[in-house]
Here is the input.
Amino acid sequence: MSAASALALLLISVWVITETRPALSAVFYDHVSKGFQASSINWVDANGFFLHSINSSFALGFCNPGSVQAYFLCVVHVSTQQIMWTANRNSPISISDQMIFQDNGDISLYNSTGSVVWSSGTAMTGAELLQLQESGNLAVLDSTNQSLWQSFDHPTDTLLLGQKLKSGVKLINSISATNLSEGRYSLQLEAGSLLLSAEFSSPQAYWSMNTDVRTISMGSDYPSYASLAAGVFGLYGNSSFLVSEIVLASAASNTLRRAVLKPNGNLVTSFYAGTIWNEDFNALQDVCSLPGACGQYGVCSNAGQCSCPQSLSPLNSSNVAQGCGPPAQLPCTNSSTDISFRDMGSGLDYFFNRFSAPLNASSLKACQNLCLQNCSCSALFYHQDSNDCYLSGELGSLEYKGTATSFTFLKVLTSTETPSSAPLVTANSGGASYIVYIIVGCSVAFILVVVSIFACWFYRRKKASSSAAFTEDDGFLESLPGLPTRFSYKQLQTATNNFSTKLGTGGFGSVYEGILADKSRVAVKKLESVAQGKKEFRAEVATIGSIHHVHLVQLKGFCAEGIHRLLVYEFMARSSLDRSLFTETADCPPLLDWSTRINIALGTARGLAYLHEDCRERIIHCDIKPENILLDDNFLAKVSDFGLAKLMNREQSNVFTTLRGTRGYLAPEWLMNYPISEKSDVYSFGMVLLELISGRKNFDPTEVSEKWYFPAYALQQAEEGKCEMLIDPKLKNVTDEEVTKVVQIALLCIQEEVHLRPSMGKVVQMLEGIIEVPYPPLSSQFAVGLHARMLDAISQREQSIASTDYNSQDLLSASQLSGPR
Ligand SMILES: *[C@@H]1O[C@H](CO)[C@@H](O)[C@H](O)[C@H]1NC(C)=O
Ligand SMILES: *[C@@H]1O[C@H](CO)[C@@H](O)[C@H](O)[C@H]1NC(C)=O
Ligand SMILES: *[C@@H]1O[C@H](CO)[C@@H](O)[C@H](O)[C@H]1NC(C)=O
Ligand SMILES: *[C@@H]1O[C@H](CO)[C@@H](O)[C@H](O)[C@H]1NC(C)=O
Ligand SMILES: *[C@@H]1O[C@H](CO)[C@@H](O)[C@H](O)[C@H]1NC(C)=O
Ligand SMILES: *[C@@H]1O[C@H](CO)[C@@H](O)[C@H](O)[C@H]1NC(C)=O
Ligand SMILES: *[C@@H]1O[C@H](CO)[C@@H](O)[C@H](O)[C@H]1NC(C)=O
Ligand SMILES: *[C@@H]1O[C@H](CO)[C@@H](O)[C@H](O)[C@H]1NC(C)=O
Ligand SMILES: *[C@@H]1O[C@H](CO)[C@@H](O)[C@H](O)[C@H]1NC(C)=O
Here is the structure.
């Protein structure tokens, strides 16, 4: 290159730089430096956004969501244009107003009259850069890139993934999607919990994380911040340990998440799924529990229907949801007027009553007197049967609960009261003499002294009990019905006496007997080779633990610690079905009679039908066999280990699934690489049903060779119309019809062709006798398939004999298979 052309190039680039600079519409990436200035009008081409994060997930600029002349400096999520943070939410500016990164390091936003409406407060701190990070955090950095200020510490209504809501910091809702001004609801850490409160004349809580049944308590540390992580909304202690958590539906680790305090006061978490935000948690599931569901004094019922209480009328007749009136008076400001109570009817409740301690009042009148003595009392709630008296300051929406013995009164001035209105209490009867005034004065003083002593005592007592309540709450959450408890490995080690009493070994690990601290007996299953992370495991356990059915073994708790994965189940006194069915010793365990066996079959079928058809997420058991059917004291059958197949399979790639199950009960599609469905469980159930009929194992080489493989023998007898030959010889008084019916059901279930097998729901109905049992198709394919199963069983046996120490037939029919297929 010649010197001349090099010079020409240089000149061109200088020209390009000087030409583009004044246009000022180029978008900056990652950061801008000291001296930077911006106003919305300079970036109209970019919709007002002048700074993008390095990969453009977020942008900083001026937004005007109400499409009026009200602009805000805000951080938006670029692909959905949703606002994540606002600098000046209460003081909008105009299109030409500026943000200036001053030479002293402060970043300020000015309005048209030249007032600073927002400032980063970083003057004289050495600020050099304003960086918009890929996480959505806006940070002011010094020359060593230390953060001097960050938007994550000053949230508005949104908490992003990884952002910490520390104690003392509040999330406050916006008035609406188009008016970003602060509303009256807040989310903050308080008294060891995460609280949603209505910021009325005094704050009124309406949700507490610690009392939400979906919260899982993890430790006793005092929470110091709340944060969103993959699959978890959690409270963390000082050393960043989880104290309690809410498991979110989606556990994917690399998705963007946020928690938003919505304009209506609900706290909603969502994750960004490529195009839209998907909600996965709502703090309040019933809109009637929201403080403003129906406006002030409006009554919310039936999940969102608004009406007005007795003796009040709508403020806006065309929209009852805007509230009712006339409003209460706070008559302390006007001592010369008479005070009375307006009856709002019975059956109403108020959200804050669930979070405040009631006063004890022996009667409605006593409760009204308490309200009269309290200047901030505007309404009272009195529960006749418990004598609970709740005083309320400013009142939001009411909920209709229908309890006939609870009454609500609004404090009003008598002058505004219509004569026809219901019970009134008058505080001051007027026309009293001088003496009366003295007596009244003295008693008022006396009452005041008593009240303040009582208030002091009550306050201290409440303080003491609230600190105690926190620890109690922890215990409460540990034992909440319906949610699996989290145990530490040490607790389970102690409970099982260091895993000393082994109850059995199943497909997924060994089971040990244990006794919990509350003296309840449990079975503790130690899972082997679970490659899942703790969070996924917990999310899965939460799903399994939320499934309740009388014929499914209850999951009581779990442990996920280090490499340990344990599940804690209710203890089943009579252990598994195989023990009762196949053990030879006379009377111990007692022989299962025919009706008990049918009940066991029916119970198992009902449990499976529930898993297949009624659960939110269909669950295929994959390992139905007598070992996994447990019996309680009354021989009630409960299916165990459901959902585990799912737990274990997640680790596998899409190509190979681990073959988990037990040969002899496995449906042919397992062995032939066809898709597995709930009908695979139906096959296994059919195999168990045959064993219930015969009282022997399906493969038993101690029998005459014709009967080695019972399913094939059963088919043969059924073809010859001699089903009664199949009944367990130990049983008496069983009619031929009954046996024939059950054999037919079993043969239907073990059909080779998946579509010929009935659903579990149908099986239940057949066993119950509600529907006719169709004659099983005894096709040649069925016979050929059964023959193949038999040859398979025989070759398995020969292999085991060939291999060294074979000493039990059990080894054969219950041999575990595992490994890629
Ligand atoms: C930005 O995107 C690139 C390429 O997709 C990725 O390697 C990088 O980690 C991303 N940066 C951040 C901060 O996420
Ligand atoms: C500018 O802000 C000041 C202080 O917040 C306020 O008093 C004034 O009304 C604002 N001016 C405009 C035009 O919004
Ligand atoms: C500070 O961050 C900026 C922007 O990410 C980068 O260009 C610069 O090299 C960093 N400086 C130091 C000292 O790390
Ligand atoms: C937003 O709502 C507040 C409170 O209702 C109101 O004072 C303010 O004028 C509204 N702002 C806009 C831009 O509508
Ligand atoms: C947690 O940390 C904060 C701030 O460092 C401190 O004030 C508080 O006492 C600590 N709490 C506990 C229980 O350690
Ligand atoms: C009353 O409600 C209707 C319907 O929501 C609304 O259009 C109207 O503006 C409201 N009137 C007042 C005075 O708020
Ligand atoms: C106090 O009472 C007088 C008359 O009794 C009335 O005019 C005035 O509005 C009342 N003030 C308040 C704040 O209720
Ligand atoms: C409430 O008051 C009644 C009568 O004054 C008394 O008998 C009762 O024990 C009190 N209950 C509580 C919980 O203090
Ligand atoms: C008066 O009532 C308010 C509102 O319910 C309550 O917050 C306050 O504690 C009460 N004061 C006394 C002394 O009972």
